[in-house]
Design brief:
9 strands; 15% strand; binds NADP nicotinamide-adenine-dinucleotide phosphate
Length: 294
């Protein structure tokens, strides 16, 4: 019998890649979205769309009815643990068998960033949820570089407050393939496991710039900036203050060497090495390229 997998965060970066990775698999996809009129992405990927808000427990039960597996992704923000709690409760009430949860690299009660500490709260809850569970803790997403695509396209530069940080960054498509692997395997196989997922090498942003330049056929330069300058830019683009603070905490941690590591967990799960930044740069080159006039 085909299993119904409920995808949360279904319009976002990771869950979209997950639905791509599950294409053709023997599962019935169901997507939880806040706005049904903005759910073309999940529909195009074959998902049945249910509306609901992780911040509103009363909106969730219909989407969870008949679900066997929950992919639980909570958006960043101070209410993330409440969002996760609402989903876990709805899952328990509905008799869901397994939860696969997206956490974050370094999630811990003493993580140097609020996102890591909030994720740790939800990780603890999952560990006691009474269902089978698996937690994925991916490293910094290569896809975060797409936030810099406008600057790279127009000026050939990008500015981050990461100093000379080295980060074992990962391609979101690999995170999604690991999630799909876990969801398609027997629920007992990965039960109780927490997987820290990274890319194949720990990179500085100078190295990232060089790889982007090679893929684009023109130079790309990383310009380190201070926390205040980056914060001003983010707030100017409408990024909420809480998120700007969170990003600053990550930047400081990374600048101090906190993210300078890789693991071989992904290779163990997928039986192949993780995608490299060079492939990310090639595959996303159009996003970093100026639009042609007229
Ligand atoms: N960026 C990184 O480097 C990194 C690394 C490791 C882990 N992570 C973790 O990845 C997660 C973010 O994943 P992402 O990048 O795929 O996110 P994203 O692209 O920002 O998408 C967030 C998704 O959550 C949905 N959402 C927001 N509020 C909701 C609510 N109240 N109820 C239901 N759905 C809601 C959004 O739907 P709408 O369309 O309705 O807005 C959207 O589908 C976070 O937990 C973060 O800590 C990030």
């Amino acid at each position: 019998m085909s299993r119904t997998v409920l995808i949360t965060g279904a319009t976002g970066t990771v869950s979209t890649a997950l639905m791509n990775a599950l294409r053709g698999a023997e599962v019935d996809l169901r997507a939880l979205v806040r706005d049904g009129s903005a759910a073309d992405g999940p529909r195009e990927r074959g998902a049945e769309v249910f509306t609901g808000d992780l911040g509103d427990a009363r909106s969730l039960p219909p989407a969870f009815e008949g679900v066997r597996d929950l992919w639980l992704l909570t958006p960043n923000g101070p209410r993330a643990p409440e969002n996760a709690m609402n989903a876990v409760w709805a899952a328990r009430q509905a008799g869901v068998e397994r939860v696969v949860r997206l956490s974050v690299v370094g999630a811990a009660h003493d993580a140097p960033n609020r996102s890591g500490r909030l994720h740790a709260l939800s990780d603890r809850e999952i560990e006691r949820c009474g269902m089978r569970w698996t937690i994925l803790r991916p490293h910094w997403f290569m896809q975060n570089l797409l936030n810099e695509a406008g600057d790279i396209a127009t000026t050939g530069t990008f500015s981050l407050n990461m100093a000379s940080a080295r980060i074992g960054m990962i391609d979101v498509r690999d995170v999604a393939e690991c999630a799909a692997r876990v969801l398609l395997d027997d629920p007992d196989r990965h039960h109780g496991e927490t997987y820290t997922l990274t890319g194949p090498r720990s990179l500085t942003f100078d190295e990232v710039a060089r790889e982007l330049g090679l893929a684009l056929g023109r130079p790309v330069t990383y310009l380190p900036v201070g926390d205040e300058a980056k914060r001003k830019t983010l707030l100017g683009h409408g990024v909420p203050e809480w998120i700007a603070d969170m990003l600053e905490e990550y930047a400081r941690a990374y600048a101090s060497g906190w993210g300078d590591f890789t693991t071989d967990t992904l290779a163990g799960l997928l039986g192949r090495p993780p995608r490299d930044i060079a492939g990310f740069a090639r595959d996303h080159a159009p996003a970093f390229t100026p639009a042609r006039d007229g």
